[in-house]
Amino acid sequence: MTVEHEPRPAPGQETAVIRDWVRRCVAAWQPILVTALVIGSLVLAGGTYFFRYEPDSQVGDAAVQQAIRAATEGTVAMLSYSAESLDQDFARAKSHLTGDLLAYYTKFTEETVAPTAKEKRIWASAKVIRAAVAEMRRDSAVVLMFVNQSTEVKEQPQPTVTESNVLVTMAKIDGSWLIAKFDPL
User: Fold this and answer.
1) How many domains in the chain?
2) How far apart are CA 160 and CA 16, in angstroms?
3) 96 is a domain residue
4) What is the pLDDT of residue 182?
5) 68-110 residue pLDDT tens
6) Which ranges does the record mark as transmembrane (predicted)?
7) H or E element, residue 34
8) Domain-embedded: residue 6
């Protein structure tokens, strides 16, 4: 029995066969590799936009101004009330609050402020003198507020003015900035 063997290619010829095979593979896979690189580049660019640019645009000047405006309106609402319109005043203030602060404010105004304001006929008005954002994120902000609160009691003809500084922590909930913490300094 004889076994036929294919002749072995010469050493230089074997290298040429391998090169030809590699060229054919590269030629066949080149469009796929180019397409994969283009898609990868687009994914990278999109990821960069959504993780770098988009969050920055949500904490830009417009967002800062919205947070300051909401903190100012909420602070004024929380600290302004009249014995004649307590329910409306407190309801307006509560519309600016969220979380534990809302629960605390509700309890505090019902148990402490309302009875005292009705008994002594108290009128309070707050004004924000200055405000600045100390910390800003896409869904939260900390605003430093400089507030003057004028309080009048029916028995005392002269109003009392109290100056205070407050750190107001804002939370963005369903597109609206609400006060989550109110920390006097």
Assistant:
1) 2
2) 98
3) yes
4) 97
5) 999 999 999 999 999 999 999 999 999 999 999 999 999 999 9
6) 28-51
7) helix 11-48
8) no
